[in-house]
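A brief tutorial aside. Many learners find it easier to grasp structure tokens once they have seen a single protein encoded end to end. The record that follows does exactly this for DUF2202 domain-containing protein. Read the sequence first, then the structure, and try to relate runs of similar tokens to stretches of the chain.
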Amino acid sequence: MALGLLILITLTLIVLFKTYEKDDQVSYTEQATSVSQPVVAQVTVPVSGQLSEAEITGLIRMREEEMLARDVYNALFDKWEQKTFINISSSEQSHTTAIKNLLVQFNIPDPIQTETPGVYQNPAFTDLYNQLVQKGSTSLVDAFTVGATIEDLDIYDLQNLSADTQNADILRVYSYLIAGSENHLRAFTKQLNMRGANYSAQYLTEDEVTKILN
């Protein structure tokens, strides 16, 4: 059952990324098709004379993705009372606020309209929140694996989005977020190692993850 849930989580993450990708961008490796994929709502992209559509959708995506990370870590702290989760949750709050400031700067409507955990404009993020919390509530090793997976995805997305923009303000924030996510990935994998477990890369390559950890 745990394996099936992990497959469902992976498929949901794939759908989330593809919602914001153009057809000619990098896609995920094909996954098993036996699990049905959730339907993702269409996102209305606001008009901005300063940014491209890819830049706008990227900011909207990362605003919700960083909020999701914060919410999941808060939930896992409530479950396990491990300080790693609450410490990184506080950092995720600063990450999502940094993205919000860019939305304000470029006059882009904020997709986050409530502080209620697990509630997002994109319902696929809500589904993902529920899946990740369920998976992370199974065991402490699963909880730290969920954390490492979120950071793996964050870095992967931010690297791809950075390649789609030349805007100095966006690049500055994305660089800050990548550095933070690399620190978080190291923290979660350290906790896994202390419990005799290892993290296997899900989105970055194993070489990329090894480079970050070393």
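Self-check: The chain has one domain: 2-15+52-213. If you spotted this yourself, you are ready for the next section.
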